[in-house]
């Protein structure tokens, strides 16, 4: 009828969404989510979708080859976020007049696992592979993420300026990483004799291909020898951040050092610096400095 909006299908919304977000850092994840939702709602009119249908269609079992099991609330929230973004963009195009209200799942507090310096030193000494030991030292010294570290080229390292210009970041935005003496010592040796485009970290023995993940056998073997439990590569970053907070680095500074996007992302480390909170307790006081204090009944009886 005259004045009525044409009906748009889920496939149309999916294609529009993927074209809009092509080239983004997490594009592969968006594609995976949209393919999943398209399997559920192909052929459906966008305006016919309800919140109950979407929530009932959420994945319940992981399809990942190495992560079989029940899908977490956090993963379900990511799937919901993708379809909600797609529907919001469809509403902006006037393809639908409202977006179903979707209920978020509870997500447990983020895990913070770290070890003291004496344990980390012993752990590093137990690693058999030289490239693993060097990469782990730089990870603890700088807080660089695994992908950032193994994607680092010689051209991105400035020994003179004590910094590394990281391009392969989680946020998709390049950032400068300050290098302390520990990191400089390793990197100075690692880049020696290499051309600008070569990777800083390779497996050695003539192998120049990019390392996509740490050697878990070497990592786990070192953990077992020292009795370290529930410790992963990313916990080297947690360890770096925890040490900073314990030694007085302000959270805002830590946020910049670690390349986090919001201050909320570093709040999980705040509890590690109770002394820095206690130091401000006397900023507001009134009784102990009063000259007109009267004795309490207990003091008079003493």
TrEMBL record:
Q: Pfam families this protein is in?
A: Phage_integrase
User: What keywords appear on the UniProt entry?
Assistant: DNA integration, DNA recombination, DNA-binding
Residue stretches making up the Tyr recombinase domain: 110-282
Q: Name one GO molecular function term.
A: DNA binding
Q: Say if the entry is tagged with keyword DNA-binding.
A: yes
Query: In terms of domain of life, where is this protein from?
Result: Bacteria
| One annotated GO biological process | DNA recombination
Q: Which PANTHER family match?
A: PHAGE INTEGRASE-RELATED (PTHR30349), PROPHAGE INTEGRASE INTD-RELATED (PTHR30349:SF64)
Its protein name is Phage integrase family protein
Q: Which organism is it from?
A: Ralstonia insidiosa
